[in-house]
Every structure is written in C-alpha cells, then in structure tokens.
Design goal:
Length: 77
Amino acid sequence: MKSPAQSRAILRALEQQHPGADTELRYSTPFELLVATILSAQTTDAGVNAATPALFARYPDARAMAGADAAELERLI
C-alpha cells in the first residue's frame, strides 16, 4: 500500500503526463466513478451513463450495493 505522500506523487506525475484529462462518464461521488469505470470496461460510456442514474438512485453507496439482490442489480445494469 502506498503512503499518502507516495499517492500524491503518483497523482502529480499522472497530471503532468495527461494534463486536463477527463472522462465522459457522469458521476458525483468517488463511489459512482469507481462503479461507472468498472462498467465502462463492458460497454460504451454512453451506455454506462444511460444505466447509472437508476442504479445509483437505488444503490447510492457501497454499503447499499453490497446488500443488493443480485437479480435486481443485474436488471439495473
């Protein structure tokens, strides 16, 4: 595990290598960005953006999603 100082150094290096980098994924919390990024490996960002509003309305955080019924979660995704 990286220390906070190491993590900050990595983030600075990434910002220098990729200035102004952004994503088309729509999110409002780090949890939402994580989930959207994972989903984007399987479909387009547009597809993720279409699915996530209902997903995050039902499961707004990791605790809620961890307790989700698998069938309902799959339906929303």
